[in-house]
Amino acid sequence: MMGHSHAVSGALLFAATAPFVPPLMGMHLQPADVLMGTVLCAGAALLPDLDHHDGTIANFLGPISKVLCQFVAWVSGGHRHATHSLLFVALMGGGSWAGITYLGRNFTIGLTFFLLAMAIKALHLHPPGDGPQGWITVMGLAALGTFGMLNWLPSAPGWLPYAVALGTLAHLLGDCLTKQGSPLLWPHKERYEVVLIKRTGNKVETKILVPVMTLATFALLLWSTAISPTVLS
Question: CB-hemisphere CA count at 13 Å for 148?
Answer without folding.
Answer: 10
